[in-house]
Amino acid sequence: MQIIRVSLENFRSYREGLVDFVPGVNAIVGANGAGKSTVLGAIGLALFNARPPSIHNEGLVREGANSATVTVEFESTLDERRYEVERRLGTNARFRVYDIEMG
Fold it and tell me: pTM value?
């Protein structure tokens, strides 16, 4: 699996965030508190519903927002197709997998 893009909306400290990845090795760098771990946690949540045991859904939704959305776009190494996985928390919670090439 090659992650292409991660999009965050009202997720933890991010009002809006977009992280693009390139083929190969990527580094997520920044100052303490910049949101590096949040990006990694968002990937785990979107793809595997993994979350730190000490944080409930309420702690993942940005303060003042009703819902948070994490979207991960990736290319599968199995079929070389692009997919988009979206996980929404809070109001209108949902999980969806979308095959980008099929529309």
Answer: 0.90
Distances in whole angstroms, Cα of residue 45 to Cα of each of 31, 69, 86, 87, 96: 23, 10, 10, 8, 13
Q: What is the CATH number of the domain that holds 19?
A: 3.40.50.300
Integer Cα distance of 85 and 99 in angstroms = 9
> What stretch of H or E contains 75?
strand 67-75
Tokens 């990736």 belong to residue: 74
| 38-56 pLDDT per residue, tens | 999 999 999 999 987 767 6
Contacts of 16 (CB under 8 A, 6+ apart): 8, 9
- Counted domains in the chain: 1
Give the helix/strand (H/E) hosting 102. Answer: none
Helix (H, G, I), strand (E, B), or coil: what is residue 54?
Answer: coil
Rounded CA-CA distance 73/99 in Å is: 10
